[in-house]
Write a structure and sequence with these properties.
The protein is of the alpha+beta class and 167 residues long. The chain contains 4 helices and 8 strands, in the order E-E-H-H-E-E-E-E-E-E-H-H. It has an 8-stranded antiparallel β-sheet with strand order 1-2-8-7-6-5-4-3.
C-alpha cells in the first residue's frame, strides 16, 4: 500500500466560499523558487501558460495544465516573497490565488492558497493543487511532470474526505 503525503487543507470562509491551502518545503533557495513560480517559461512547465501584461495591475490570460483557461490580473508581486493574482476578475467565478515564499536555510517553504472557490468544488481544487505542487517539485529536480489528470483522480477521494461537512 502506498501512502500519499497530503500537502493541503480545505476550509469554508466567512463569506460562504471555500479555500484550498497547500504548503511544502522545496530543495531550492528563495530566488530559484521565486523564478519557478513567476517566470512564464518555467510556469508553463509545471502549472500554467500565461500571456499578457505581466506586471502589477496587468491583465493576463492563463491556461492551466488542469485545462482551466481564463483571464486574470496580477495584484501583488513583491519579489521574492509574495504574489497575488485574481482569476476571472469581476466575474461570478472570481478566485484569488496567493503565494508566499519563506527561506529556510538552503530550502524554501511555499504556501499557495486559492480563495473564493465554491464549497462543493473544494475537493477537486484541493487534489488539483496538490498535483500541481508535486509537479513543481518534479520541475525543480529536473524531472518530467506526471500525468496531472491521473494524479488528480488518485488524490480526489482523500480531498473529498477533507471537505466533508463544509457545505
Amino acid at each position: 500500500m502506498t501512502t500519499t503525503r497530503i500537502l493541503g487543507t480545505v476550509r469554508r470562509l466567512d463569506d460562504g466560499s471555500g479555500a484550498v491551502r497547500m504548503e511544502d518545503v522545496y530543495a531550492a533557495d528563495l530566488d530559484e523558487l521565486w523564478s519557478a513560480v513567476t517566470d512564464p517559461e518555467r510556469l508553463a512547465r509545471w502549472l500554467v501558460e500565461v500571456s499578457g501584461d505581466l506586471r502589477v495591475g496587468g491583465a493576463i490570460e492563463a491556461k492551466f495544465t488542469s485545462s482551466w483557461t481564463g483571464p486574470g490580473r496580477i495584484d501583488v508581486c513583491e519579489s521574492p516573497r509574495h504574489l497575488l493574482v485574481t482569476m476571472s476578475p469581476g466575474e461570478p467565478d472570481e478566485t484569488v490565488i496567493e503565494a508566499w515564499l519563506v527561506a529556510e536555510g538552503d530550502r524554501t517553504r511555499l504556501v499557495v492558497e486559492e480563495r473564493g472557490i465554491p464549497v462543493p468544488e473544494l475537493a477537486g481544487h484541493g487534489s488539483g493543487w496538490q498535483a500541481h505542487v508535486e509537479d513543481l517539485a518534479t520541475h525543480l529536480s529536473g524531472g518530467e511532470h506526471h500525468d496531472w489528470r491521473a494524479r488528480w483522480l488518485e488524490l480526489t477521494p482523500t480531498y473529498e474526505v477533507l471537505a466533508e461537512g463544509l457545505e
